[in-house]
Each structure stands twice: as C-alpha cells, then as structure tokens.
Amino acid sequence: MAQKRVLIVGGGAIGLAIGWRLARAGCAVALFDRGRVGHSASWASAGMLSPLSEVQFEEEDLLHLGLKGLEVYPEFVSELEADTGCCVGYRRDGVLLVGITQDDLEYLKFRYRYQRDLGLSVTYLSGDEAREREPHLSAQVSAAVWCPGDHQVDNRRLVMALKKGLVAAGGEVFEEMGVDELLIDGARVRGVRVGEEIFEGDTVVLASGCWSRLIPGLPDCARPPVRPVRGQIMRLALTEDFALNTMVWYSRVATSTVAYLVPKDNGHLVLGATSEEMGFDEDVTAGGLFELLRAAWEVVPGVYDLPLVESTAGLRPGSRDDAPILGETPIEGLIMATGHYRKGILLTPLTALSIARVILERRTPALIRPFGIDRFGL
Question: Would the pTM of this model clear 0.85, i.e. be above it?
C-alpha cells in the first residue's frame, strides 16, 4: 500500500499532535505554520486541563469530550515523553474555585449544584477548609469548590516535545511558511500552495486556529466559522517563601473577570486570562493586565510582591458555539481540527487520536460526531 501523504496547515499543539500521531503510524507528514510552531495561542496558554472547573451550562457534549480528553492524557504523555525524552510537566494538582463577595458565593453555589447534578466529583469547602488546602489564599475567601480531578501540563514544553517527536518520526516541519492557497480539484482536495511551490497530498488537515477560515481557495461549504478571541496572560516568578500547592480559579462577578493562578515546575506562576473580542489585535494592554492582577491579588495577596517575568497575548479560535470543529468536510480529503477556543491544550491528545482515526480508518468516532462542520448548515 502506498504511503499516505498528509499536509497539516497550522503548527499549534493540535496540528503538531496530529502530525506526530500520523507520522508514528507511517504517514508522510508535512506541517506548515505561518510563524514559529507552537508560538501562537498554544504558547499563551496556562496549560490547564480542567473540564470539571470550566464546565459551562448546557454544554454536556463538550463536557464529555473534555472528560475523555483528560482520561487519555496520561497515556499520551507517557508515549510522548518516551519518544522524545522530554518532560512536559504533567501534574495532577486539582483546582480550587474560590469566591469572596455574596454575589461570588451565589454563583459558586449555583455552579457547584450544576457540577453535582452532572455527577462530577467536587466538594464544597468553607473558607477555612480552602485555606487548609492552599494557605496562601486571602482571608477574604469565604468558600470554594474543590475539583481534584482537574490537572495541568506545561503547554510550552508540550509543543516543543511534539515538534521534536514529529520530526523524529519522519515528519517535515515548515516554519514561517504560511499556506497561500488550498488547492481543490472538483470536490476533492489536491494539496496546498506555499509561495510558488505546490505540495500535493492525499489529505489536508486544517488546524490553523482562528486563521483557519482565511485561507484562499477554501470553499464556503468548508469555511469554518471561527473568530479570534484575545487572551492576555502574565508569568510571575515564584519564590522560596511563596509557592502555591494547587491551581486557583476566581470568577469575579462584579467585573465579569475570570482569573486563574497556575504554578509551574519551572518556578513560574501563570496568571490568566482575559477573553476579549478584539479581532486580530494581539497587543498586551495595561487594562487587561490590571484586571487580571487585581483579581489574582484579591484571592492570593502574595502575588503583589512576585517578580514579573513576562506578559503576552494569544488569539484563541472561538467557533460560533465556542466548541471545536472536527472531522470531515464536504470536500473529500479536507479535514477540520480547529475552533478549540479555551480547550485546545486539554483536547490535544483526543483530537489527535480522533483525526488520525478519521484519516487512517475512514471512520468518524462517535464522540466527535456532534462537533462536525455540518452542524452550522454552511
């Protein structure tokens, strides 16, 4: 049987993981990215793997996808670390959802009841009980929900390991080489054009995040309705006297600000993240960082004295319903893997497994069928 040639457009965590999985399976893989692989939305992430704490109302299908994504993570990490010799900082920390004001507490109780109704393993804690688990919490924190099943990974180590694994498995990675045109012959994909060079392939996987809909040559019937949502984050340096035991999440009802604090093995504390509909503007703003730092300081006052390492912003790909777009399209050979919004790192292993199955077995797993592009009626 001839070797299957797969072209992947987009080199974030999703595209890299798909490429790694397919290259290991014997496919000839070429991946193209408009910049440096792994340095867009995947780089500006906190690496939270938190389907329990991030569950939203009336998104049960997405919750089930996230829970399955979390379930496959340990084996994915073991395989990747064995292939590459890289540690990706996978940790089973758990998340504390915390509240301060009466409005915060009402919202926290409402979320807790919803989580319990869904059968999730979470525990409601008093402020004192929460501080026993995380002593750096403010005395103002009056209640919390403990989500022990949520984990985290070092997203930056992850994308670098995936790149290494893809290349080691025989894949080609073309950085600073954005695709200028998708080539379609009738109702079948033929390949891509980069500058004057044509790359032919049996399959093209569109995994370029919020830029996915902008590729020339993409027909309307297969144009994913994705938009950029800016997320600003900060990285602070932890000290010997200040180290968090767990991840902390605060939904500040008064200002609709969400802030989370994620300690990393490299001594950084990630504070994230804004969600701003600002088009393709990737600027870091004083206002965005102020809101994050204010919310973080209210729940963990010790962040005030920590050194600032960096601030950055990334553009998350949000779809029309903020759920991923996965699987086949009306164009034969054109596969979608985009629109992951806030769950890209969480869904990276599961997306790679699912898309590999679509390509290698010509079968769409039942779990991703609700997330096909056909749901938008294009």
Answer: yes
